[in-house]
Amino acid sequence: MGLPFGGTAKNYSATGANNNSKFIPEIWSGKLLVKFYDATVLAQISNTDYEGEIKEGGDKVYIRTRPDIIINNYVKGAGLNYQDPESPNIELEIDQAKYFAFKGYDVDKMQADINFMNEFTADGGEQMKIEIDSDVLGAVYADAHADNAGNTAGRKSNDIQLGIAGTPLMLNKSNILDVIVDYGTVLDEQNVPESSRFLIMPPKMCGLVKKSELKDASLSGDGKSLLRNGRLGVIDRFELFTSNLLNVTGGEYDIIFGQKHALTFAAQFEKLEEVRAQNDFGDYIRGLNVYGYEVIKPEALGHSVARLQ
After folding, report:
1. Intra-chain end-to-end CA distance of the chain, in Å
2. With 90 as the cut, is the pLDDT of residue 132 above it?
3. What are the b/e assignments for 279-308, b being 16+ CB within 10 Å?
4. Helices 176-189 + 203-211 axis angle, to 10
5. Which of 26, 131, 142, 255 is the most buried (most CB within 10 A)?
6. In sequence order, what are the residues at sequence separation of 6 or more whose Cβ sits closer than 8 angstroms to the Cβ of residue 188?
7. CB neighbour class for 268 (10 Å; exposed up to 12, middle 13-18, buried from 19)
8. What 3-state DSSP class applies to 213?
9. 71: which DSSP letter?
């Protein structure tokens, strides 16, 4: 069965001659991954171009990068210098894994007035989202380009303050829009494409945006101001996302912004199977999700340390 973003579900047949659970692993795996992607921000802020190449945990996907072609000045009769382009590979390691395992008793299935599998699928997708989002968002900011972080950010200007641990940006409703514009300037100086830019903020920071003096409704990409409809939308080319899973230490948040080609992410349910219980009337259900992520364009990823007022 085909999955979102090119993934594939492996076919593990249900076991047990007297199985009454209607457990069909390949279908359930697909539903679970769909719900996982619906809930996570990773599918929105990263590219998943290489997900279909995963076979199992421990795999390495080799990503070919585009070489930098040198442009020379032409002088008539002086001859041409031919470049030998190098196209280095970046390794995407599928080196992370998380699982779930639970029991399903026959007596509960017979007496239940709800579809247990749909309920378990929904909760599994949400819990998997929380765990994997926490892993990625809690670490990936450290891979931002040096010119896209700190208090001397900006590839050209070198004077944009994005905050550092111990000396964070102090954000409030009066300066929040200016800071978002600075984030955009940092990416502009790296020649990052304007499409598919993102900014991930904790809920309180989103609240500052809504409280700010948004006199021009077009800033939000909407016909009404944020104060009127509560929709964050787009500000200065950034699609705004809220998350409670950003790293925070001592009240200082690691804010992440960038463009979705900065980060590649891949996940797949490697195993999803049902085993008949040996000493009870029921089944053991277990699933293993493998995943990996890699910052492949650090110049398209930014990091800001902020305290919210």
Report:
1. 49
2. no
3. eeebbbbebbbbbbbbbbbbbbbbbbbbbb
4. 110
5. 255
6. none
7. buried
8. coil
9. P
User: Which tens digit of pLDDT belongs to each residue from 182-228?
Assistant: 999 999 999 999 999 999 999 999 999 888 876 454 454 555 544 44
What is the pTM (predicted TM-score) of this model? 0.73
SS3 186: helix
Cβ contacts of residue 289 below 8 Å, gap of 6+?
36, 97, 98, 99, 128, 132, 267, 268, 269, 270
At 24-60, the pLDDT tens digits run 565 556 666 665 555 568 878 888 766 555 555 557 7
Chain-centroid distance of CA 199 in Å reads: 11
Q: Containing H/E element for 192?
A: none
Tokens 């500000």, residue? 235
Contact 153, 186 (CB under 8 A): yes
d(CA 263, CA 138): 14
Question: Encoding tokens for residue 213?
Answer: 């003096």
Helical residues (DSSP H) of 138-244, grouped into ranges: 176-189, 203-211, 226-229
Nearest to 180 by CA among 257, 263, 241, 262: 257
Residues near 97 by Cβ (< 8 Å), separated by ≥ 6? 57, 270, 288, 289, 290, 291
88 alpha carbon, distance to own chain's centre: 24
DSSP state of 69: P
Q: Is 60 helix (H, G, I), strand (E, B) or coil?
A: strand
Q: What's the confidence (pLDDT) of residue 118?
A: 62
Output the CA torsion sign for 120, 122, 124, 126.
negative
Residue pLDDT, tens place only, 219-273: 545 555 444 434 477 889 999 988 888 999 999 999 999 999 899 888 777 777 7
Q: How far apart are CA 135 and CA 224, in angstroms?
A: 36
